[in-house]
Amino acid sequence: MSNKSCTVEFDGACKGNPGKGGAGAVIRNARGDVVARVNKPLGFTTNNVAEYEGLIVGIEKATEMGYKEIHARGDSQLVCKQVDGSWKVGSSNLFEPSRRVNDLVGGLDEFDISHVPREYNTEADQEANKAAYG
């Protein structure tokens, strides 16, 4: 990994599903040090939309910081599989966030996404919960 490379750990939180939601991400440099934390309250949403928004705010922040190679990690299998093209986006409420992710990654030199178990995504989860519940 070069100095243009980072890892974006993302998550979404939703109380009720649908309910009050939040998105969060943690950005790590090539050495694995946390270089940014970002979160965004979403208001009334679904859990899957919140997960997508976590990825979006993470990619936006990393891009803003000058990163061109992004390795995304999240505990939402649905988002990971839809973004990597393994699964079709079937839900109409996910068309827009999916398109936004595709637009964002289109401008990168390199992008990949992988699913990780929830216990390996605790810092992004904390950011999402902070945004959703204060």
Can you give a write-up of this model?
The protein has four helices and five strands. With 134 residues, it is an alpha/beta fold. Strands 3-2-1-4-5 form a five-stranded mixed sheet, with helices on both faces. The longest helix has 18 residues, at 47-64. It is globular. The mean pLDDT is 96. InterPro entries: RNaseH-like_sf (IPR012337), RNaseH_domain (IPR002156), RNaseH_sf (IPR036397). Pfam families: RVT_3 (PF13456).
Question: Would you kindly provide a brief summary of this structure?
Answer:
By secondary structure, the protein is α/β, with parallel strands linked by helices. About 35% of the residues lie in helices and about 35% in strands.
Keywords:
alpha/beta, 4 helices, globular, five-stranded mixed beta sheet, RNaseH-like_sf, RNA-DNA hybrid ribonuclease activity, single chain
Q: How are the elements arranged and paired?
A:
Layout: E1 5-15, E2 19-28, E3 34-45, H1 47-64, E4 69-74, H2 77-83, H3 95-106, E5 110-115, H4 122-133
Parallel strand pairs: 1-4, 4-5
Antiparallel strand pairs: 1-2, 2-3
Helix pairs in contact: 1-3
Protein name: RNase H type-1 domain-containing protein
Domain RNase H type-1: 2-133
GO molecular function: nucleic acid binding; RNA-DNA hybrid ribonuclease activity
